[in-house]
Amino acid sequence: MRFGIAVAVGLAGALLCGPAMAAERTVPQSEAALRYSFSPIVKRVSPAVVNVYASRVVQQRASPFMDDPFFRRFFGGEMNNAPRKRVQQSLGSGVIVDASGIVVTNYHVIANADEVKVALSDKRELRGRGRPEGRADGSGGAAAQG
Fold it and tell me: How high is the pLDDT of residue 5?
């Protein structure tokens, strides 16, 4: 995942900084210079990196032990074992790739989500719509639009 983000950030940086950075191109002479050579690009594209929060409501049985006669006798057969709802949450990162607000993230982050939120680097949170694009095995990407 880090590799994907690094590639996306690098591509975004190349697109945003291409002509402007062409005059400043030099080969770094040391490891420290190499590390700092990416600083202007990272500074420019880091606002495009976002947190993606997704949630969905799932049904969960109260206790699987209540199917066993011993536990039913020990704890009482009257115990309510009806399914109950709980909120399942997932968290991932993404990159804004379009001015209209399209965010690219991993498929498993927003798959089957009831609600998707995107948190920007300036602390704003936006509600999004998920549109997973991937395969049944969970590989592939996904897009959310704020």
Answer: 46
